[in-house]
Design brief:
single chain; mainly alpha; 8 helices; EC 3.1.3.27; lipid metabolism; metal ion binding
């Protein structure tokens, strides 16, 4: 699909518009990174919530994302098109579960999630290459978010950045 056609399709289709992170996935450079940046204002809206509400919303984002990413990929005819970044949004929200408050943690969570999402250590890379459809698009980022969350919490509890 030509870039201009894709742009028009993303902006016209609610499915693509959401899957493409409100259009951020249309970036010709680092769409996954821009998709993760889109997650920061969403996180800031969710951060004051009680943990159980934060977790519920994050689970809904993930479950909805399985359908959304699968539907967008199917319409495009491209499995896990680089512009589909809803999975990055979900992965970042997972990274930030129970994160300490402050911009240092927001930035550190962003960096950690991007490292795990790009590097794809085992089993992230295996899942990325073997699992198809919306579940496959989402699952590698969910695992990357879990890994990043574990490292973020370890740093927080170690007191290194206190």
């Amino acid at each position: 699909m030509k870039k201009t056609t894709l742009c028009g399709e993303v902006l016209r289709s609610p499915t693509h518009f959401l899957a493409f992170g409100f259009g951020s996935g249309l970036s010709p450079v680092a769409p996954g990174t821009l998709g993760t940046l889109v997650a920061i204002p969403l996180f800031l809206l969710m951060q004051p919530l009680a943990l159980h509400w934060y977790l519920l919303i994050t689970v809904v984002v993930v479950l909805f994302g399985i359908w959304l990413c699968g539907a967008s990929a199917k319409k495009l005819g491209i499995h896990d098109a680089p512009g589909i970044v809803w999975d990055e949004i979900a992965g970042y929200l997972i990274t930030m579960i129970a994160a300490p408050q402050g911009w240092i943690w927001i930035i550190l969570g962003f960096v950690l999630f991007r490292i795990f999402d790009i590097w794809k250590p085992w089993p992230i890379g295996l899942v990325d290459s073997k699992v198809e459809g919306g579940l496959g698009i989402m699952l590698d980022d969910v695992i990357a978010g879990i890994f990043a969350a574990i490292v973020l919490q370890a740093i927080a509890y170690s007191g290194v950045l206190a």
